Every structure is written in structure tokens, then in C-alpha cells.
Predict the structure.
Amino acid sequence: MSAGGDAARPAPTQAAPPRVAPSRLGHALRDALLMALVALALFGPLLGLKTVPLTTGLALESRWHLVAAAVAIVFAGRFLLRYLVWRADRPAGTAARPAASAPRGWFVKALTPALLLTALAWPLLPTTDRYLLDIGILILTYTMLAWGLNVVVGLAGLLDLGYVAFYAVGAYSYALLAQHFGWSFWICLPLAGILTAFAGILLGFPVLRLRGDYLAIVTLAFGEIIRLILINWYEFTGGPNGISGIPRPSFFGLPFTAGEGGFAAAFGLEHSPLHRIVFLYYVVLALALVTLAFTVRLRRLPVGMAWEALREDEIACRSLGINTRNTKLTAFAIGAMFGGFAGSFFATRQGFISPESFVFMESALILAIVVLGGLGSQIGIAIAALVMIGGIELLRNLAWLKAVFGPDFDPSLYRMLLFGLAMVTIMVWKPRGLVSARMPSIQLAQRKAVGAHLVGQGRG
Amino acid sequence: MEYFLQQLVNGVTLGSIYGLIAIGYTMVYGILGMINFAHGDVYMVGAFIALIAFLGLLAFGLTALPLILLLVLFATMLLTSVWGWTIERLAYRPLRGSFRLAPLITAIGVSIVLQNFVQLSQEARVKALPPQIHGGLALLGQTRISFTQILVILATVSLLAGFTYLIARTPLGRAQRACSQDMKMAALLGVDVDRTIALTFVMGAALAAVAGLMHLLLYGVIDHYIGFVAGVKAFTAAVLGGIGSLPGAMLGGLLIGLIETFWAGYFSAEYKDVAAFSVLIIVLIFMPSGLLGRQEIEKV
Amino acid sequence: MNDAILTVEHLTMRFGGVVAVSDLSFQARRGAITAIIGPNGAGKTTVFNCITGFYRPTEGMVRLRLRSGETFLLERLPDHEIARIAKVARTFQSVRLFAGMTVLENLMVAQHNALMRASLWTVGGVLGLPGFRAARDAAVERARYWLDKAGLLERADDPAGDLPYGAQRRLEVARAMCAEPQLLCLDEPAAGLNPRESADLTALLDQIRAQHAVSILLIEHDMSVVMEISDAIVVLDYGEKIADGTPAQVRDDPRVIAAYLGVADEEVEAVEHALQAGAAP
């Protein structure tokens, strides 16, 4: 599937009987040939034979040149790796690689303010146009979602694969509240957050006793159930058509319209549709920063410590008098609440929501950001959101590839393929995420990072 | 009554497909304790390979249906298992024994890759294959069971029997069970853990390939999205039956198939998935180890 | 025996068909160290799990009376309530620390309920009310006190999982003490320790008893430890009580000797050794 690149690590030691040591070249060639054969089996039918619809039914169209290219790339890549890169017979196999090291202090120290400043100044930069502003909003939304999910997965160690459900509940709560009651953004937002927190508790209750992957699959099921209900409950949610005409936010009562009484007129500016986008950008930035401040603060409070203790050892928690049920429920509720805020924001930004925005892939993406960032690390998560969401967007602009593959080549189609490959590669490269060390939330004398290999993974 | 019987037949057939996929989940989970999220997409890949093999053999001029079916079955199982093997090798083996969530994320990544690879190489259109096997048997009154359905059920039963034998009686099965009990100990006792796990993935992929072929024969329509929903339901089936248990996976698959079919037949087709997932949630809450799984006593 | 902190009556625990503990009755005196001993598989840890609420006994009653006179029926309370309101803390046979948190954090988690109240169930904490800050400083002070007692003060900011085994055992005891228990249940605290670490631990336990009016219930295999520090001993075999009394009484009980003779050689040797050690002076 991947051409060369991360293709296969050294073969397991037992595959190479040491009786007669073959020459390195011969060994590498044989190995590369074997991999080429595998590639042929992989790509032969799917890439080589394309099903094309004819009037009489389906027919096959052969494209053997593609297969040949793929097989050649695998052969060459494997051979080069084998012959040039993996020179020594390194032991391979099952052992876990050592955990990632703690990031250098000054780097992180400089990185956080730098990121914050960039985020604050982003709309003001001369290079920022509508498109870059939208990307900024998108990245911040996902950062916020990931910080929210991190409370559940990273701190409390509860694997939640249905987080998008809370995003959906927030969005729909906001849309319905705003439409039926005509309340403003600043009233609907907290209400939607509270409603979503309740949804979190409601969904949390039945799954309290479940552990590990059972919890994962049940949360996934809950996510799907909510989506299916949104699709099928026409009277309430508008079904697959969703809800449109959701009121746009106003600048504390001033709508972003041209003419009298609008935002631009009140401040003596020339009306520009960008004003609303800039405003939305700062709203989501503020929401994200509130999420950040709140979760950082909670982590130092007894409830946050109890979450982390729960991740480390639930039984020990119970022996110390911690009510694990309530502790888990608060984690679910608070994680859900931030999902709800993000959902509300999404609804008001889009002006239109439908169940299509809340598919499992969204949950997977948010979880991937949390895990890639390094569970529990706020800055790591922000970077991961930047890389992943920004990366997807960058991949949209692969137009230069047309120069390589000819004008018929549509690069945007390859976006998700490359995205998936990147996800696998990054995870294999850094299984514990970008920032894997854990910083203690309290110290007596000196704050020292805890190595990732010690930090629990949570069983719930 | 006739309607009921017809739904029963349809449900059992659908359940067989879920069961075949579920076995792949259950075997991998039994050994590695991980959800192989890409498994549903392996099934999708299997369905596509089956389609291509079918068309290829027809274009080749073969006309004997049983021969075509047999060849397609073998080709699909073989080629799909190579996918299973490769996925394990590239995306899971480097992470074995590492952080619990890492393989889950790579699995999701692999799932994205497979979906998009198939979409790119085969185009996003829905592919339809006209029914290949015609006719069926009349049961009671209007109730019919098509030959395709009979084939699906027979294939499932024989594969299940074969695999149960494989796990229970052969050295490979013993190695597998040893690895699922205690991988380190098994390695110390001379079990080739890497090989055993690779073979587990190969077997799971082969079964998923059969399921893909069955899906193609039964419904005649495939696209690159069929993997996700079927995968989730099959995993549901595996959990429902008690994860790690082979008969459990089959039982769970049948139950999910039946629940879905009957719900769609008697209540509302829109909510059939909700019914399947709700059953999962209810079973897990009241019987956390599934129907046939081992009960775990909390060790303090 | 009048002032019993813990009274166990007719305690029975069955797992399916297996009877792990059968009709066990005993009392633990307030301020004393009561040891539960017995061969492997005698049901000692099961008794602990019944007392601390991790198992629900099949039959029987576990009554706990606090110094205030308040009485609890432990078999009716969930595990965390037993720790919170009945003031029972415990350690585990296989050490259960929060390995990825620092030593200090471990001790802070142990004071969760007090801190939770002080933070007004998080609301006050988020707002940064001074009441919570004072309570947290007090909690750090208590943690510092117990770190000092356990000889772990220098390692306060290290991850608990990095400590050597003996230190982890002491930390677990310190953590339990931070929860301010009136009854402390220790499940084989000296298991796997070398003589030096074992002596450190015994010293810690002695201090706890002498200075903190905590009653201790102890499971232990190391006979020298048991004979040295226990005030009373309950002997279990196959889930039944076969003896109960002072170390001297238990030592001479023929049934106890028989029970130990019926098991592995090392344990018999350990008992004989302890008997001689006790008889010699």
C-alpha cells in the first residue's frame, strides 16, 4: 500500500538462518524481490484492473503500467533500504521501542508564546485572506475539540470513540435554541454547553462499568445512534436536510451587515464581509483559550488529580475513598461540554448543519489529534491539530503535482490517501505522540517531567 | 408466518456474513487485545477483488459457474490475505507492546488508506454485478430461499467448522491460543509469536474475503464505503458473542443479522442500525463479557 | 477486647462453588496490631477485600466502630464509602501506586475528599477562592510529614513508578495514612523486601501505632515481622479460623503448627524459626 517509504522494517531474525551467511547484496535482492511479489499481489487486481461500467454491465480495463510502476517502486525502495540503510543486522521484532523523550525545555517554553502570538495576530497579518482565516478557524475548532476530548481520554483514561456525538448535540442544541427562541449567541452558547454536559452524563451512566475496548465500542455505538436519530427524526432535526438559516452571531447586538445599525457603520468602517469572519475567528480563539485555561486549572484541582489517578489505577482510587463513578461522570460531562461549545460555534459559523457533519470519521480525527499530540499534553495537541488539519488543507493544494503527472491528474483526490498514510507513519514513528512526557500538577521542590513509559494508559 | 420465515432466512444469511467478519475481529482481539479497525475495510477490499476476479474470469471465457465460483473464492482469499498480512506488518507490528491507543490510530489510518485507495483505483461509483446464481427453493408457501443464500450459509458453516478444528486441534491453533493467554511465555516456550500473529491476520482477512464475496453474490452492489458499517456491526457481533470466542462471534453475527432484519421487517428500516447498536449496549451493560465470553473476576 | 474497632461475625465468601472464607468471626482491638496469617490460599486477602468493600460477603457481618462511637456495617457500604466515612485505608499485595504520578501527587490524591470539600466540589477551586488554597497547603504539609516519616522526602517530585520496591511499599503505607484512617489494612507489606527494607517498614509501622492511634490489620507471611509487632493473631486455613490469640498462644497451638506443616517447606521453616526465636529469650 505504501510505495517504499515506511515499507517494512527488517525481517524478524528467525527469518534469516545464520548457517550460510549470504552476501549482503544477494540478501537484499532476494528480500526486495519477495516484497515486490507481495506488492504485485496487492496492486495487481485493484490497480491493474479497473472496473468500468458499459451499457452491457461492468467490464475490465487493464492498466498494467501502473502496477509495474508500483511494484518497481516497492522493489527499489525495499532494496535501497535493505542494502544501504539497514546495514547491520539489527534485531527486529516485537520489542517496544523506548518511549519518546521529554522535549527540551527552552523549545517548549518558546513555542507556547509563539503559537499564542501567531494565533492572536493571524487575522491581522497582511498575507491572511479569507481562505487562511477559514483554515485558522477550522484548526482552532479542532484544537478545542481535541482539548475537550483530552479530558476524557488523556486525563481520565476513558477511551471515547463517539465524541462527535457531543459535537452534534451542541450544534443541534444551539441551532434549535437559536431558531425557536431567537436568543442571541451568548445565551445559546452556554445553554447548549450545559445541555451537552447533561448528554455526557446521560451517555456516561450506562457505560460506567465498561472497560477498555468495550467502552470504546459502546461510545462508538452511541455516536452512531445519535447520528441515525438526527437523520431519521424529521420533525425535530430536519432529517438528512438538517437545519438551515441558523442565526449568525452579531457583535454584541450589532449585526455584520452593510448600512445603518451594522457593525461597520457603528465603528465608522467600510463594510466588509471579512469582519464577520475575523469576529468568528476571535470568538473561537477565545473559546479555545477558555477551554485551555479551564482544563489546565482543573488538572491542578482535586477533581483533575482524581481523573489522572483513575487512569493510573482505578482500584487504588476506590481504596482511597474516591467515588470513581462521579469522577468518571464529571470527566464525561466536562469533555462533552467543550464538545458542545465547539458544536455551537460550528452551527453559528456554518449557518447550516446536517447529520453529515457528524460522522464517525470526525471522532476518529479528533481522537487522532489527541493521540498524536501526546495524551495529556495541551501544547502537543495544539501542534497536532495544526499539523493534521493544516496538513489536510495543504494537501488540497497539490496543484504542482499536475506538472509531474500531467493535466489530467486531480491532486485533491489523493488528499485523504496521503492523510491516512501520514497518520500511520507518524504513529509508527512516535507511538506516544509528539509530546509524550507528563508534567506533574504539583511539586514540592522541583517540577520534573514524568517519562511516558510510566504514565498509565487507562483501562476504562 | 411466511413473512416471518422469509425474514428468518434473510436474517440468517446476513448474519452469516457478519459472523465471518466478526471472526477476524475476535481472533485478533483474542491475541493482541486490539480492535483491528481496518478489518471492515479488508472485507471491502475482498469484495472488490472478488468482483474483479469474477469479471476477469468471465472475460477470459470461462462459463462453468461452479468452476468460476471456486476460482474466485481461492483468488479472493489469497489476495485479500496478502492485504491482511501487509497491514499487520506495516501498521501494527512496529507498535506491538507499545501504547495501547497507537495501534488503534494506525488502524483508523489504514482504514482511511484502504477506502481511498479503492476509491482512487476503482472510482467512486457504486459497482453492480448482476445475479450470477439463479433460482432457489420454495419453503413454506411464498417463502423462498435462493441458491445464493444456501451457498452463503453452507460456506459459512463449513468455514466455521474448519476454523474451529484449526484452532482446537492443530499446532497453529495451539500456538494461537498460547499467544492469547500469555505472549511472552509463549515466546519463551518456542512459539514463533510473529508468525502466529501474522497468520492470524491472514486467516481473518481470508474469512473477511469470503464475506466480501458473499456480499457481492447476495446483494450484487458494492462501493468503497461498505467496509465501515459492516465492520462496526461485525465488531458489535464479536463483542456481543463474547470477544475472543469463535462460536461467540458466529452467534453474535447471527443475532445482529436477525435483529437487523426483523427490526427492518416489522418496525422501521430507518432504525435497524439503532436496534443493532442498542442491543449491543444493553448486552454489554448487563453482561459485560458477552454471551459466550469468559467472565472476568476483578482481581484486587 | 471490649473496645473493638472491627468486629467480624460469621463472615462467609463463596465464589461460585468455591468457599474462600467460611464462617469467620474475630475482633480487632482499637489501637492494636492484629495479624491475619495462614498458608497460601487460606483466604486472607479475601477477608481484606470483604472488609474494604471490594467484595460483597456472601454471608456475615463486618462492624466497624469509630472513636466517635459511630458504627458502620461495612458489608453494606460501597468500597469508596468505606474509605471515606468509615475511615478504613488499605494497601495491596501487589503494590498499587499511581505510577505515572509523582510521589507527592500520590499523597495528594489520598486527600481527595478533604480537598474536594475545600474546593467546594471544584467550583471554588476554579474561581481560586482562598479557602481552597489554604486547604491545599495544609494537604501538602500533611504529605510532607508522611514523606518524612517514610524517608521519601527527597524523592517527592519523582514519579512513583521510579522508586525502588521497598520505597514503593513505604509510599503505599504513607499514602494510606494521608487518607487519615482509623483502621489501616496492610496486605503483606513486607513481601519481597530485603531485611533492611523490612526493618524500615517495621519502624514506620511502629511509629504509626505509637503516634497516631491507628489500629492496624495485617496480613503477613514473614513470621519474624508478625511475631515482633502483632498484639493479636488470627490464623486461617482453608478459609476457616483455626486459632486466635496473642502471639504466644498462637505459637503453641498444635493446629497452627499442623496447618503450617502441611504446606511448603519454607513456610514451615519460617514458623519453626520464629517459634525458636520467640522461645529462646
Notes: The radius of gyration of chain C is 19 Å. Chain C touches chain A through 49 residues (CB under 8 Å). Residues 261 and 268 of chain C are 5 Å apart (CA to CA).
